[in-house]
Design brief:
By secondary structure, this protein is mainly α.
């Protein structure tokens, strides 16, 4: 027995209503999902580079501070051999130690002014270059006078490296990580 056309239309209409209800439920879920995504902050595409930079900055500063600390103490242990090579007494070479420490003491206050005036990163880069040039000049010195002059030049670079390097770390590190960065 064949069904009447009105029955077929009612069944098709009920299927269509179910599909439409499912579509509305799906649409409601999608709208909610997009609303959650819209309120979430956008992902920063440069975040990995900022993380590397935030970790590299304290490492670079720590390396520079290590260079300065080693250099300020290494001359004391090698003083007798340097005095023998220059043909002078080790007592006279104490001038090289004193001149380095004096240059540090004089130019540390100027390093804060220079960092404020020219920028901390520029001053830190220049300090590393001055310190390295002073180290090369110390290695190339052939007399006590040239060694003392090279040590003063090296002390100028060293005096700029320590406080400005710490200033860079303090500015680049969030407050929660200051203890770990300075340790």
């Amino acid at each position: 027995m064949a069904r009447a056309p009105a029955t077929v239309c009612a069944r098709d209409l009920s299927v269509l209503c179910r599909w439409f209800a499912l579509y509305l439920c799906h649409l409601r879920v999608e709208i909610r999902r997009h609303a959650r995504l819209a309120t979430r902050p956008l992902r920063d595409p440069f975040r990995p580079f900022r993380t590397i930079r935030s970790r590299a900055t304290p490492l670079i500063v720590a390396t520079a501070l290590l260079m300065e600390n080693i250099d300020s103490t290494v001359l004391a242990t090698s003083l007798p051999q340097i005095a023998y090579d220059f043909g002078t007494s080790p007592i006279l070479l104490k001038l090289a130690l004193t001149s380095y420490l004096l240059a540090l003491a004089i130019f540390i206050p100027a390093s804060g002014w220079a960092a404020d005036r020219f920028g901390a990163r520029k001053v830190f880069r220049a300090a590393i270059l001055v310190f390295a040039a002073g180290s090369i000049a110390c290695a190339a010195s052939t007399s006590l006078g040239s060694l003392i002059a090279a040590r003063v030049f090296q002390g100028i670079g060293g005096s700029m490296m320590v406080p400005v390097g710490r200033l860079i770390v303090l500015r680049a590190t969030p407050k929660a990580g200051l203890v770990g960065a300075l340790a």
